[in-house]
Write a structure and sequence with these properties.
The chain is of the alpha+beta class and 577 residues long. It has helices spanning 15-43, 49-55, 57-78, 84-122, 125-153, 237-259, 261-306, 321-383, 389-417, 429-443, 464-481, 516-519, 537-547, and strands spanning 5-6, 167-176, 179-187, 214-220, 225-232, 313-314, 426-428, 447-453, 458-461, 486-497, 500-509, 551-557, 561-572.
Length: 577
């Protein structure tokens, strides 16, 4: 807070940036998860450790940010900073909502995955694949046997124009000029060969795509002639076989996925689901900080206004209801400051008027005996000058006594009215109390003074003569209240208020106490219940204590005694404890 104005302290990353990062993260999650599933379903294996480490960089970074945010919130709660409980409550509500939202989804997902795994275990893919492969092999074997029967029943000399059923083509090659060249071709054009598959009698090895959907037989007709006979397996033979091989590979992938399901799920949730969840919690913490910060500012500002600081103003750029509340608060504080200034001015005028009247009254009272004493001496001097010595001493003593009373009254009035600068001097309290009590215990032997509870090593921030002035007024009042007989106890305690140490001094007597009708007038200037009192002692004590950053109050019961309490800024030397 600077120059009486508080500035909002939000997180380094704003809510808008966090939301933007969250949106980018969702898009990347969708894109990478699609590639993840495609690669996994094709390979059926868990991604390599290096890929896992690379993918986990984002969740690790988010965990660090979440840890820092959570530690800050936890520190606020431990140190009981303003607004920490409200932040924790908001975050708890958000967490409960998230848990209630995702729990059914997680339960349904786990149940569905269990059913899928159970179904996979119930499917015997190996038996189905083996049966299909046997069927293809037997089908091929039947076609081969039929082809052999056709070869036995027919003479393929190269001159037949009509081909038997299931024979797709017949092609003749002749060896000429050092190479095998086509001599004749009969049948379907798509079965034509542009090179000799083999020069040996029998079934050549099938090669795809050359021998697609066909079985070829090579028949040698002499040294320089070879006939290639093509048997038609049908258009879907090799297509179906390829499909069966693909499905067999897929079945193998499914079996591999079934074995690696749990690691894959762990990888998926750790890489894709965890970052979004962490980002959601981070945004929630930022939202709670943003929501509670104006309330914390208002709380702190209200406390400072209650302490009398009317110069505070809260800076806010919000245009919502909280911003309106802050602007209203600032306007209220300004109005309070104006009202307080006017009230203080009015009170000062009233106080000075009352003090002037009281001072005039207090000065007028001793003037009457002074005047009477002087007139008495003057009359005796005129009428019986030889007998003036009989009244001279008593009249002069009365004048001197009343004059000293006026001098004391004016000195106390001067002390009460003039400005008093706070002291920067530290005074040992125990030493000052001992010196003061030593003097009074000799003068008042009928009074028992108890200072055993005044701790050593305590220093108060006030001049020595001021603390002596305070204690002297309180002790004299206590002696007068006890009519010179009783006990006075002085004790000290260390208290802490708003991180500042204070020494609490208590002065307790066993006198007649203060009546209820006088309780509200004790610190009023010129109010006194003593015949010879000025009524300025306690007001002066209150003025000294307040100007040194302390406080004074009392507890009293009629017939039981009175205890005055004074709090002054203090330090405690532990070595002297």
């Amino acid at each position: 807070m600077k120059n009486g104005k508080s500035r909002p302290e939000y997180s380094i990353v704003s809510i808008r940036i966090l939301v933007l990062i969250y949106a980018i993260l969702c898009v990347l999650t969708v894109l990478f998860s699609r590639n993840f599933f495609i690669d996994t379903l094709h390979n059926g294996e868990v991604p390599q450790r290096l890929n896992f480490i690379v993918f986990m960089i984002i969740p690790a970074g988010l965990l660090v940010i979440l840890g820092i945010s959570g530690f800050g919130l936890f520190s606020d709660i431990i140190s009981r900073r303003a607004g920490s409980k409200f932040k924790a409550r908001l975050l708890a509500y958000f967490t409960i909502i998230v848990v209630f939202t995702i729990t059914p989804v997680i339960i349904i997902t786990i149940g569905a995955l269990n059913e899928i795994v159970r179904f996979w275990h119930s499917v015997d893919t190996a038996s189905a694949t083996a049966a299909a492969n046997n069927l293809v092999a037997n089908n091929y074997l039947l076609h081969t046997e039929r082809f052999e029967n056709i070869l036995k029943q027919n003479n393929f000399s190269g001159q037949n124009t009509k081909l038997p059923q299931d024979i797709a083509a017949m092609q003749t090659f002749r060896f000429k000029d050092g190479i095998w060249q086509e001599r004749s071709f009969t049948g379907k054009e798509n079965f034509r060969l542009y090179s000799l598959p083999s020069a040996e009698n029998g079934f050549p090895v099938r090669e795809l795509p050359r021998d697609r959907d066909t079985i070829r037989y090579v028949q040698r007709q002499g040294q320089n002639t070879i006939i290639v006979i093509n048997y038609d397996l049908g258009e879907d033979f090799d297509t179906g076989r390829d499909a069966l091989e693909n499905q067999t590979a897929r079945f193998d992938t499914v079996n591999l996925l079934r074995e690696n399901l749990r690691p894959l799920l762990f990888f998926f949730y750790g890489v894709f689901f965890l970052p979004t969840l962490l980002m959601t919690v981070i945004i929630a913490i930022s939202f709670t900080r943003r929501i509670t910060h104006p309330i914390v500012e208002l709380t702190e500002a209200t406390r400072r206004v209650a302490e009398g600081d009317f110069a505070i103003q809260i800076l806010s750029r919000r245009n919502d209801e909280l911003g309106l509340l802050i602007r209203s608060f600032n306007a209220m504080v300004q109005d309070l400051e104006k009202s307080r200034a006017a009230l203080v001015k009015s009170e000062k005028i009233s106080i000075w008027q009352n003090m002037a009247q009281q001072l005039a009254h207090e000065i007028k009272n001793p003037l009457t005996p002074i005047k009477l004493s002087a007139e008495r001496v003057l009359r005796r001097w005129r009428n019986e000058p030889d007998k003036i010595g009989e009244i001279l001493e008593s009249s002069m003593m009365a004048i001197i006594q009343e004059t000293e009373g006026l001098s004391t009254l004016l000195n106390e009035f001067r002390t009460l009215s003039k400005p008093m600068e706070p002291s920067q001097t530290w005074t040992d309290l125990r030493e000052s109390v001992e010196e003061l009590i030593n003097a009074y215990s000799t003068s008042y032997p009928q009074i028992q003074f108890d200072i055993n509870h005044v701790e050593k090593g305590i220093t108060v921030k006030i001049e020595k003569h001021r603390i002596t002035q305070i204690l002297t007024n309180l002790i004299i009042n206590a002696i007068d209240a006890m009519n010179g007989t009783g006990s006075i106890e002085i004790r000290t305690d260390i208290v802490k208020k708003r991180d500042v140490l204070y020494c609490r001094i208590s002065v307790k007597d066993t006198g007649k106490g203060i009546g209820k009708q006088d309780s509200n007038l004790v610190f009023t200037p010129y109010y006194t219940t003593k015949e010879s009192g000025t009524g300025l002692g306690l007001p002066i004590v209150e003025r000294i204590v307040n100007d040194h950053g302390g406080a004074i109050w009392f507890d009293s019961a009629e017939g039981m005694g009175t205890t005055f309490y004074i709090d002054l800024p203090a330090e405690k030397n532990e070595e002297e404890k």
